[in-house]
């Protein structure tokens, strides 16, 4: 079943009218993430195709969706990583791919940073390429985060870039010319670089400042050998951010914070 855009808008409006105050345990980041993840899951309706992002906050969304599936909710999930696929299968969520469902009704994902215009830095989980593909295909993009991820300006976090291993050395040189310090991300439980689900490297790029995120995203995409960057600037018109805080959950569409 396909759901028109106005149905998602109605769900968001209803959620904004019924935001519960969280208990004292919400002061812990884990509780804030859970609250945001659960709120996003409660926006999903029967028959929807749901893009499932990668990361700790989205795993709470999967947890809540599992409860709702057990209660009879019928959905199809499109995972953005092997890890998310494993968790979704354990949660008894039926899965498909973008080949099967090229226009998901909604994509739910986390973020490393969110600025006042709802532009994002993503990619701490090294799934940024598939996450951007699913976000681009979805009719609506819901970002779940805790208050610590809300920033006045992007750039405190490094910008992850997925790079073809064959071209990594010239890519590093091009990245330095853009003014950043690029570092190939090293694995924790293996020797050598992190390898993405697509068989590529992740290069974390630290910039002294990001004055124009859209222009930087374009510049990164233009480097031969760069598959994708963790700057998500092109989806603000269809983005809703659910922020789990110490006292309550806030839902921020772009119109709430940009004149």
For the secondary structure, the number of strands is 13
Proportion of strand residues: 15-25%
Q: Into which percent range does the helicity of residues fall?
A: 25-40%
The shape, in one word, is: globular
- Widest β-sheet, arrangement of strands: 2-1-3-6-12-13
Characterize the largest beta sheet: strand count, sense, and whether it forms a barrel.
6 strands, mixed
- In N-to-C order, the SSE pattern is HHEHEHEEEHEEHEEHEEEE
Low-confidence stretches: 21-27
Ends: how far apart? 35 Å
Number of helices, where a helix is a run of at least 4 consecutive DSSP H or I residues? 7
Q: What does the average pLDDT come to?
A: 90
Radius of gyration: 18 Å
Describe the 3D structure.
The chain has 259 residues and is of the alpha/beta class. 31% of the residues lie in helices and 21% in strands. It has seven helices and 13 strands. The chain has helices at residues 5-17, 29-41, 56-70, 82-90, 128-137, 168-177, 213-221, and strands spanning 49-52, 76-79, 106-109, 113-114, 120-121, 141-146, 159-163, 181-184, 201-206, 226-229, 231-232, 239-244, 249-253. The strands form three sheets. It has a six-stranded mixed sheet with strand order 2-1-3-6-12-13, with helices on both faces. A four-stranded antiparallel sheet has the order 8-9-7-10. The protein has a three-stranded antiparallel sheet with strand order 4-5-11, with helices on one face. α2 (29-41) crosses α3. It is globular. The relative contact order is 0.17. The model is unreliable at 21-27 (pLDDT under 50).
């Amino acid at each position: 079943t396909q759901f028109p855009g106005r149905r998602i808008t109605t769900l968001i409006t209803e959620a904004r009218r019924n935001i519960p105050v969280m208990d004292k345990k919400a002061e812990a980041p884990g509780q804030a993430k859970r609250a945001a993840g659960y709120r996003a899951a409660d926006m999903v309706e029967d028959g929807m195709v749901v893009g499932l992002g990668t990361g700790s906050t989205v795993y709470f969304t999967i947890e809540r969706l599992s409860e709702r599936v057990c209660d009879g909710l019928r959905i199809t999930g499109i995972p953005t990583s092997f890890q998310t696929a494993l968790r979704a299968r354990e949660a008894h969520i039926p899965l498909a791919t973008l080949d099967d469902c090229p226009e998901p009704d909604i994509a739910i994902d986390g973020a490393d940073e969110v600025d006042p215009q709802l532009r994002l830095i993503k990619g701490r989980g090294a799934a940024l390429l598939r996450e951007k593909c699913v976000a681009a295909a979805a009719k609506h993009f819901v970002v779940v985060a805790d208050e610590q991820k809300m920033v006045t300006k992007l750039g405190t976090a490094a910008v992850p870039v997925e790079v073809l291993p064959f071209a990594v050395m010239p890519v590093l040189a091009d990245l330095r010319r853009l003014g950043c310090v690029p570092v190939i991300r090293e694995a924790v439980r293996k020797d050598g670089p992190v390898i993405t689900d697509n068989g590529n490297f992740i290069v974390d790029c630290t910039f002294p400042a990001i004055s124009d995120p859209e222009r930087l995203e374009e510049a990164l995409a233009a480097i031969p050998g760069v598959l994708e960057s963790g700057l998500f600037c092109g989806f603000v018109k269809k983005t809703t951010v659910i922020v789990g805080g110490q006292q309550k959950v806030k839902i921020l569409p772009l119109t709430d914070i940009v004149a």
